[in-house]
Design brief:
The protein is an alpha/beta fold and 408 residues long. The protein contains 11 helices and 19 strands. It has helices at 51-69, 103-113, 162-174, 185-193, 196-201, 233-244, 248-258, 287-312, 334-342, 367-378, 392-407, and strands at 7-13, 17-26, 29-39, 43-44, 47-48, 75-80, 86-95, 122-134, 137-140, 150-161, 178-184, 203-208, 213-219, 222-229, 271-274, 283-286, 322-325, 346-348, 355-356.
Length: 408
């Protein structure tokens, strides 16, 4: 097997940063061998709004990763997020042929479950089986070879806007990259930071990115609910910029260095230096003032997450608590405030189960990138993602060919 066949690349296309992570497949798992990051220009709330700027940002991140890994990158697993992402649960039933469940039966029942009405402007990104039921026997993960007459499947279907998926693929193609698959970002993050026990008992993954906060609820080992909330780390930065009257770029630096989500953790005598706008002199301000700006916004994000869990009916199933990941999870006081709002245990999630440059990616901000590698290693044999062709002339010609076949 060539070295390229043993290599997997995850491309996290985020609102604030684009991150490419290269991993080598080994008998023990995945070894991280390269990482490249660049500031993200051209995305808003996880959606591409400027193609050229996004292409340039991807190119920078990929070139940096290639230098560190010492090889060329050709194929990537790309993450997708944004407010257009919708998740729904579905159910399918089929009769078992030959009284024994075969791979064809499993495919038929999953196809039956996915036969739900989806608008023309949306595309199915994932079909994730939750459980199979054979003759009223529930909780079966793999029914292959079991005897029975009736097979049911419960699945979670993730859909997204066709145009958003197409734009991500086009950005990658214009940098010379092939897209092996497009992966939901909170699904990728779950692969990297959650333990099997947490997924079984019940856990809420809260991925706080720059433009959005992504939620994934796991229970009994399967994904039960996904949701995207339109608030993220950029909202905190904008609040700081407005509240302290400082440029947005400086507000981002202040947030990363001095930000704290729980005011009680900051001493009254602590101060920070705040650059002013328009060439005025920097000002010295109490750090508690900064925390009083940050805390309400973080509390609002957590309250929206809790409300979404309750609305979906899974508030009581997340027995092991919540796991925070994403760049904003690095801020001090996030766990303490999370436990107050959620009223359950909260921890910050960092990538697990990897080798190589572990110390480089040991941060919540790299959870999605590492998760894309893990997802890719588990689904290498599946077909690659293809953009749906919207060429009207080509569609008409294909339809005419079908008519000819039918009549002649």
């Amino acid at each position: 097997m060539a070295k390229r066949d043993k290599q997997i690349v995850g491309l996290d296309i985020g609102t604030t940063k684009i991150c490419a992570i290269v991993g080598d497949l080994t008998p023990e798992g995945i070894d991280i061998v390269g990482i490249g990051t660049s500031p993200s220009h051209g995305l808003r709330k996880g959606v591409v709004v400027n193609l050229d700027a996004t292409v340039e940002s991807i190119k920078q991140a990929v070139e940096e990763a290639e230098l560190m890994a010492g090889g060329e990158i050709n194929t990537v697993y790309a993450g997708i997020a944004g407010g257009h992402i919708k998740g729904l649960n579905s159910h399918g039933v089929v009769a078992i042929k030959n009284r024994e469940v075969s791979e064809i039966d499993i495919k038929r029942v999953v196809d039956q479950a996915r036969a739900v009405s989806i608008p023309m402007d949306r595309e199915v990104i994932h079909i994730l089986p939750q459980e199979f039921i054979v003759d009223d026997q529930e909780g079966i993960k793999d029914p292959l070879g079991m005897s029975g007459v009736r097979l049911e499947a419960r699945v979670h279907i993730v859909t997204g806007a066709i145009t958003s998926a197409q734009n991500i693929v086009r950005c990658c193609n214009r940098t010379g990259l092939n897209v092996a698959d497009i992966v939901l970002e909170q699904l990728a993050s779950s692969e990297a930071v959650l333990t099997p026990d947490e997924k079984e008992i019940g856990v809420a993954l809260v991925d706080i990115g720059g433009g959005t906060t992504d939620l994934a609820i796991w229970h009994q080992g399967s994904l039960k609910h996904t949701s995207v909330l339109g608030l993220g780390g950029d909202n905190i930065t904008n609040d700081i910029a407005a509240g302290l009257r400082t440029p947005t770029a400086e507000a981002e630096k202040i947030k990363k260095k001095f930000g704290c989500a729980t005011t009680q953790l900051v001493g009254k005598d602590e101060t920070i230096e705040v650059p002013s706008v328009g060439g005025r002199k920097p000002r010295v301000m109490p750090r508690q003032l900064l925390c009083e700006i940050v805390e309400p916004r973080v509390e609002e994000i957590f309250a929206l997450v809790r409300r979404e869990c309750a609305r979906a009916g899974y508030e009581d199933t997340v027995a092991s608590g919540a796991v925070l990941t994403g760049g904003a999870a690095l801020m001090a006081g996030m766990e303490e405030l999370g436990e107050q709002v959620f009223e359950m245990p909260v921890r910050v999630g960092r990538p697990l189960g990897i080798g190589g440059l572990v110390d480089v990616v040991n941060s919540p901000m790299y959870a999605t990138g590492v998760g894309l590698l893990i997802y890719g290693s588990k689904h290498r044999s599946q077909r690659r993602f293809r953009i749906r062709d919207d060429n009207l002339f080509q569609k008409v010609m294909e339809r005419m060919k079908e008519w000819l076949v039918e009549f002649f």
